[in-house]
Design goal:
Elements (H helix, E strand, L loop, with lengths): L4 H11 L4 E6 L6 E7 L8 H11 L10 E7 L6
Parallel strand pairs: 2-3
Antiparallel strand pairs: 1-2
Amino acid sequence: MPMTADDIAKMIRAALPDAEVTITDLAGDGDHYAAHVVSDTFRGMGRVAQHKAVYAALGGRMGGVLHALQLTTAVPISAP
C-alpha cells in the first residue's frame, strides 16, 4: 500500500520538529511525490547530509512503500 502525502509529512516532522514540509503528489497515483523541507536542523549541513536526514526520517521506506521522492531541502532565511 502506498504512503499518503500526510504520512510522509508526519514522519519528516517527527524527526525534524521545526521543519516546514510541503508534499506534492506528482502523478496523482500516491506513488510519486515531491517534498520541500525547510529546517534549521540543516544549518551547516551539506545538501547530501540534508537529504540523508530526510531519508532517515522515512525509516527505510524509500524504494519500498514510497516509490519515488523528488526532494529539495533548505535552511530558513534569517531576518536581518
